[in-house]
Amino acid sequence: MRKAWQAIAGYRLLLLGAVLLTLWFALFRPLLSGRPGELPDFAALCGADGQAFDKAAAYEGPAPHPIIVFEGGSTVKHADNGAGDRPQPDQVQLVGCLRSLGVGAELDGCSYRDGSVRTMRQGRWQIEVHEARTGRVVSTVDLNGRTGECPTVVSREHESPGGTVAPSDIRGTEPDETAYREALRSAVKP
Q1: 47 by DSSP, 3-state: which?
Q2: Which of 8, 14, 61, 138 has its CA 20 to 30 A from that of 126?
């Protein structure tokens, strides 16, 4: 009976070791080595500590300068290798950190199947562009959210019983791919 318990304990330790080794290779090794393994790893540069990646591709030489843009956490909002495709992690030279500046002009109302109508506002956004290798700010660009297109889904999470949304909970429209390309043109393909 004792040998059976020892075998079970041994398997548990082996399983724990495998899990820890997997976590090391998947999460910590790319960050510690300075070489991101996947595109979402670059989001660390937009975090509170602004972690740069000393083994990322250098921001030098002729264009293009591949970029990936994040909004909060690791949500990829835009990625461009200079030819309109997603770059590979070893190609990324620039990281953009997107933040909302609030809302601008009121847009047309949006009607939904349930009979509700929402007034939309054009979002105002800013991207702080960093060199992936050093974390140095290369440029800051402003861009606007799209116009003329209603979101397909509207959250009712912050809706009051009267059907209105509190002003602090209004989020403006997001930029489309054309807006990202135009705003980042000078950084990606100067």
Answers
A1: coil
A2: 61
